[in-house]
Amino acid sequence: DRLSERAPNAAYCAARRGKAWVVYFTDGGRVTIDLRDAPRRTRLRWLEISRGDWSGPAQTVAGKGTVPLAAPGPGHWVAALT
């Protein structure tokens, strides 16, 4: 119920309300995530599953609303928001 604007089976989300959110992308893509119960500033990191490495430095996204997320490329990715 946290994700919108997604194709079936394209992305999945697990969350600990107000603390952390993990979005798994099955093959790249874009979604919108509901972060209304997140802090105003939320840290975003991308994990490239095939390499097992974090991709680039952490970013900051605005919480307290909906946020678009786009995987950095095709393949399996995880967005970690804390």
Task: Describe what you observe in this structure.
The chain is mainly β and 82 residues long. 0% of the residues lie in helices and 57% in strands. It contains no helices and eight strands. The chain has strands at residues 3-4, 11-16, 20-25, 30-34, 41-48, 53-62, 66-70, 77-81. It has a five-stranded antiparallel beta sheet with strand order 2-3-8-5-6, with no helix packed on it. The protein has a three-stranded antiparallel beta sheet with strand order 1-4-7, with no helix packed on it. A hairpin with a 3-residue loop joins β2 (11-16) and β3. The protein is globular and about 30 Å long. The mean pLDDT is 93.
Topology record:
Elements: E1 3-4, E2 11-16, E3 20-25, E4 30-34, E5 41-48, E6 53-62, E7 66-70, E8 77-81
DSSP summary, beta strand count = 8
- Helix fraction, binned, reads under 10%
The overall average pLDDT, rounded, is 93
What is the string of helix and strand elements? EEEEEEEE
Strand content: over 45%
Q: Which strand order do you get reading across the main beta sheet?
A: 2-3-8-5-6
The structure class reads mainly beta
Distance between the termini: 19 Å
User: Helical segment tally?
Assistant: 0
Q: Which word captures the global form?
A: globular
Largest sheet: 5 strands, antiparallel
